[in-house]
Design goal:
The structure holds two protein chains of two kinds. Chain A is an all-beta fold. Chain A contains no helices and eleven strands. Chain A is 0% helix and 45% strand. Chain B is an all-beta fold. Classes of the chains: A mainly beta, B mainly beta.
């Protein structure tokens, strides 16, 4: 089955540690995205990537970093510089960015707790 | 700038009641509009979409019509079920200005009681 996988589902870290969240897709999509979701709030875009080896900052990129070395993979690193890292992180993909009508396909999410 | 505004939740209904969740948008261009649904502990799933004025998106008994004159995309269902309990997000996508934008509303939680 085609889809997006995120691992792990739950992640616990101590303050001051960097942590990397995995996102893999087998949909052959060019575009991939990372969102952060906090309770009672909508989704906020962290980073997105249109093609391999290219990515753009979203609305809340500070304290995060990404890489896109393969079409299928778009890992997100939450660094110690992120002031409030505890949140639910969602990865998504779409066919591309050239048409506004493309819907996004989401993974099941990773809940990160930093103490 | 572009934005999406949804009605505040939670919305609590009895089974078989009629559902409306309001969504209005502002956009500098000519966006596509979407409704996504999120069940507890999961990612979002596309529910329906519309890409031009007067288009009606529909899926699983849910409907929404792209109203350019009122900049709205309200979600409706004639008879809700307990299994419809979830959070619903309205979203827009716009590349008219040359810059990619995909904006989500804050979500509306729906609780359906048996």
């Amino acid at each position: 089955d085609g889809g997006i996988t995120q691992s792990p589902k739950y992640l616990f870290r101590k303050e001051g540690q960097n942590v990397t969240l995995s996102c893999e897709q087998n949909l052959n999509h060019d575009a991939m995205y990372w969102y952060r979701q906090d309770p009672g709030q909508g989704l906020r875009l962290i980073y997105y990537s249109q093609i391999v080896n290219d990515f753009q900052k979203g609305d809340i990129a500070e304290g995060y970093s990404v890489s896109r070395e393969k079409k299928e993979s778009f890992p997100l690193t939450v660094t110690s510089a992120q002031k409030n890292p505890t949140a639910f992180y969602l990865c998504a993909s779409s066919i591309g960015l050239r048409q506004a009508a493309y819907e996004q396909y989401f993974g099941p999410g990773t809940r990160l707790t930093v103490t | 700038g572009d934005s999406v505004t949804q009605m505040e939740g939670p919305v609590t209904l009895s089974e078989e009641a009629f559902l409306t969740i309001n969504c209005t948008y502002t956009a500098t261009g000519y966006p596509s509009l979407f409704w996504y649904v999120q069940y507890p502990g999961e990612g979002l799933q596309l529910l329906l979409k519309a890409t031009k004025a007067d288009d009606k998106g529909s899926n699983k008994g849910f409907e929404a019509t792209y109203r350019k004159e009122t900049t709205s995309f309200h979600l409706e269902k004639g008879s809700v079920q307990v299994s419809d309990s979830a959070v619903y997000f309205c979203a827009l996508s716009d590349i008219t200005s040359g810059t990619y934008k995909y904006i989500f509303g804050t979500g509306t939680r729906l609780k359906v009681l048996a």
